[in-house]
């Protein structure tokens, strides 16, 4: 058995290591500086240690596979061992979508009965990857959701005063490509590293939510065709296992489903701008005419928590998508057969979900941007389905938005609507469902503008100015009107 000892390494603070609920995101060149990642890992352990038991705990360490992930996994694993963590769980090849991490934290039980108390997720979400692009790290709590502001504030405070970090000297790099458990010995006893099949726990959860046989019947119909584009992100790992091996879809239905460290040189953001290949395949490109698009298409972002849904030559807005899922969930998705609790949306999301909630006699919530606010409602048993205009949709099965869940929800609705049509009747299409939704609840419009690579100082000054304006509604009204 390999023995390791704990070494204390002197360090000094780095400026700008302030995490938000999506964690710390910087360029790779920033993260690969000596001590940079180690500092952030240690201040996170220190922040958690103030309120929670780190020694003897079980942590998940995985991510979307972007450049620098493999190195970061080894660094965080050795730091976990040095800080007294009992075991680390890593998805095979270090790959776990953000929703899959949440599922593992909430659902997985180790062979010895252990449960995870949290997770380090190595991702910058929908940001580009590669040696000159972005890397990120965030911590999720025991509920599977992002760390709350109380924790992230402690983490930031610690970044300004850190003087040393701990590392397990003599602990070798672990082969993350092969499943199995490696056992080591340190000053405080045994330390295990468990490499497990990335999709097993997530698939089990999805099968408890959806009627897989009915979706399989839909996908096997010659009347129905679909395409899923993972944009070379981690969702491709889960998509192949679920759609091809479980639901019997043709592997040719999967596009860009091999994860790559640089996402194939693309921008892994599932929208009409960046998912160009899928947009063209679905007949929505202004410059490319597809003679026979699939009936259903979907895309995922780099870490698999966002989704875009398309029909044949038809785009479904994220705001409409969550409302349509909520309106049909009780009939089409077994998990919700007993009824919805309440629903929620972020402030920028259109009000169509409000109308659906009123129609279903449900209370609804409007929350600030940030999935942790949905998580608070779910932990209190006050929300079943939620979504945001930035292509994020989810439910209380986990505490993150979930792109594959949203796709399965749409396939469930299509399967339900077409349960009597697959023998030769007219197929109820994505466009049919959306237009019927508009006819019932009205059509809601909204606009979102993304400003990318803006100067951080200028953006901060702008927000500070808006806060000042907000302090007096009368002044704001005079200023605008």
UniProtKB/TrEMBL annotation:
SUPFAM superfamilies the UniProt entry points to: Phosphoglucomutase, first 3 domains
Cofactor names: Mg(2+)
Reactions catalysed according to its record: alpha-D-glucose 1,6-bisphosphate + L-seryl-[protein] = O-phospho-L-seryl-[protein] + alpha-D-glucose 6-phosphate; alpha-D-glucose 1-phosphate = alpha-D-glucose 6-phosphate; O-phospho-L-seryl-[protein] + alpha-D-glucose 1-phosphate = alpha-D-glucose 1,6-bisphosphate + L-seryl-[protein]
Domain of life according to the entry: Eukaryota
Domain Alpha-D-phosphohexomutase alpha/beta/alpha: 17-165, 201-310, 319-419
Keywords: Carbohydrate metabolism, Glucose metabolism, Isomerase, Magnesium, Metal-binding, Phosphoprotein
Gene Ontology cellular-component annotations: cytosol
Record-listed E.C. numbers: 5.4.2.2
Subunit structure: Monomer.
Record protein name field: phosphoglucomutase (alpha-D-glucose-1,6-bisphosphate-dependent)
Species whose genome carries this gene: Anisodus acutangulus
């Amino acid at each position: 058995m390999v023995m390791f000892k704990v070494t204390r390494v002197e360090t000094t603070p780095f400026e700008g290591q302030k995490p938000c609920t999506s964690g710390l995101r910087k360029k790779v060149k920033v993260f690969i500086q000596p001590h940079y990642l180690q500092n952030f890992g240690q201040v996170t352990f220190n922040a958690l240690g103030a309120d929670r038991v780190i020694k003897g705990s079980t942590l998940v360490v995985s991510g979307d596979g972007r450049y620098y992930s493999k190195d970061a996994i080894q660094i965080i694993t050795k730091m976990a061992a040095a800080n007294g963590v009992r075991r680390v769980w890593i998805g095979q090849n270090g790959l776990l979508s953000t929703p899959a991490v949440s599922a593992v934290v909430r659902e997985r039980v180790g062979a010895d009965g252990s449960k995870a108390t949290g997770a380090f997720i190595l991702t910058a979400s929908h940001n580009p990857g590669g040696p000159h692009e972005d890397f990120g790290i965030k911590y999720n709590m025991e509920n599977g959701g992002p760390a709350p502001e109380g924790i992230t504030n402690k983490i930031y405070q610690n970044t300004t005063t850190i003087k040393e970090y701990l590392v397990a000297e003599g602990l070798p790099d672990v082969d993350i490509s092969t499943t199995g458990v490696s056992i080591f010995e340190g000053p405080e006893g045994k330390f295990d590293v468990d490499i497990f099949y990335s999709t097993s726990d997530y698939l089990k959860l999805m099968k408890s939510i959806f009627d897989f046989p009915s979706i399989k019947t839909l996908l096997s119909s010659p009347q129905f065709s679909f395409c899923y584009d993972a944009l070379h992100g981690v969702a491709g790992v889960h998509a192949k296992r679920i759609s091809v091996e479980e639901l019997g879809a043709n592997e040719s239905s999967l596009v860009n489903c091999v994860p790559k460290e640089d996402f194939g040189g693309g921008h892994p953001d599932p929208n009409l701008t960046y998912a160009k290949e899928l947009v063209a395949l679905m007949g929505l490109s202004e410059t490319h005419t597809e003679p026979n698009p699939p009936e259903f298409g979907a895309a995922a972002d780099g870490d698999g928590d966002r989704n875009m849904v398309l029909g044949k030559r038809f785009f479904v807005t994220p705001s409409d998508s969550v409302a349509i899922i909520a309106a049909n969930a009780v009939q089409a998705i077994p998990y919700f057969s007993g009824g919805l609790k309440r629903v929620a949306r972020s402030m920028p999301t259109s009000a169509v979900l409000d109308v659906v909630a009123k129609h279903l006699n449900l209370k609804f919530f409007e929350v600030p941007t940030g999935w942790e606010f949905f998580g608070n409602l779910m932990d209190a048993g006050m929300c079943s389905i939620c979504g945001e205009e930035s292509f994020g949709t989810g439910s209380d099965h986990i505490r993150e938005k979930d792109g594959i869940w949203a796709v399965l929800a749409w396939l469930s609705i299509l399967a339900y609507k077409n349960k009597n049509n697959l023998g030769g009747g007219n197929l109820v299409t994505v466009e049919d469902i959306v237009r019927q939704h508009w006819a019932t609840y009205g059509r809601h419009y909204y606009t979102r503008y993304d400003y990318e690579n803006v100067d951080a100082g200028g953006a901060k000054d702008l927000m500070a100015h808006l806060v000042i304006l907000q302090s007096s509604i009368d002044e704001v009204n005079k200023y605008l009107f």
